[in-house]
Design brief:
This protein is mainly beta. The chain has one domain. It contains two helices and 18 strands. It has a six-stranded mixed beta sheet, with no helix packed on it. Strands 3-18-17-16-9 form a five-stranded antiparallel beta sheet, with no helix packed on it. Strands 7-6-5-4-8 form a five-stranded antiparallel beta sheet. Strand 12 and strand 13 form a beta hairpin. The chain is globular and about 55 Å long.
């Protein structure tokens, strides 16, 4: 029987590190399947260029806030208990190299320590591909965001008052439904931005957020993540969420961008025979 893994998370602003956040864990609600990962180091200098692959004039650089394209995850064939990850530079920054100098490993089956790994371990591991398909027309929420998400003639309930969207895993086996609670601005107080003048959205910058994963075939809820957010609108916290094939779910809780400082990752039930 499939279980629901429930984790309570809270995202709060870090005064010493603008536009960042951290997760407060309610340990009594943490069960098998999901864990928090904190990148070692002192923000914002967590990632640097790899001298083995970077161009000579980039050897003393560190990753800047806008130079990330998210993390890459890998795993050793036959070993699903440990995942590897490194930072990926943004496209067009080939001088930095394909990956950061820092590469880490962690156990998916507990809250054990993160260890740094070398180039040899990294090369032996296989890439876990990202999936976050959102192009299906029935994902469109438009102005009416109080409805549940529908997909393939099925309805997948949201826990929050307002829907933010949904993403699919590889082969559309899993669907992640995103929603939030928070006071929206009335339509007459919102407007689109122009060059040099930012717009005003209806979405609040604080409230409660929810990420829930369902089995598309059965409609059963497999994972439930709940937390509080502040500092940016709820939909932005989900823009960088993705599935690793049909095996894991990634939610960046330390940043609402492609920077990697802290994240949650959940292992999903394996298909029979895998």
């Amino acid at each position: 029987m499939l279980r629901i893994w429930a984790v309570s998370i809270g995202v709060i602003a870090l005064m010493a590190y603008p536009c960042s956040a951290q997760v407060k864990i309610d340990a009594s609600e943490v069960t098998a399947g999901c864990r928090q990962v904190d990148v070692p180091g002192t923000p914002p200098f967590l990632w640097s260029v790899d001298p083995a692959t970077a161009a000579p004039d980039a050897l003393n650089r560190v990753f800047q806030a806008d130079e990330f394209n998210g993390p890459e995850f890998r795993s050793l064939k036959g070993n699903s208990s440990e995942l590897y990850f490194a930072a990926i530079p943004s496209s067009g920054l080939e001088i930095i190299g394909p990956y950061s100098k820092e590469k880490y490993a962690f156990s998916i089956h507990g809250a054990g320590p993160i260890r740094e790994i070398g180039a040899q371990e990294w090369r032996l591991a296989q890439t876990l591909h990202h999936f976050n398909g959102t192009s299906q027309p029935d994902f469109s929420i438009r102005d009416d965001d109080n409805k549940n998400v529908s997909y393939k003639s099925k309805e997948f309930p949201k826990s929050g008052e307002h829907s933010s969207g949904a993403i699919l895993s590889a082969d559309a086996r899993w669907i992640a439904v995103f929603s939030y609670d928070g006071e929206q601005l009335p339509r007459e107080q919102t407007y689109a931005g122009t060059i040099g003048v930012p717009g005003v959205t209806k979405h609040p910058k604080q409230g409660d957020l929810y990420a829930e994963i369902y089995d598309v075939a059965t409609g059963l809820k497999i994972v439930a993540l709940k937390g509080t957010f502040t500092g940016d609108i709820a939909p932005n916290w989900f823009l960088t969420a993705f599935f690793l094939e049909d095996r894991y779910f990634f939610l960046n809780t330390g940043e609402h961008t492609d920077q990697i400082r802290q994240f949650w990752i959940c292992e999903l039930p394996a298909l029979p025979g895998k």
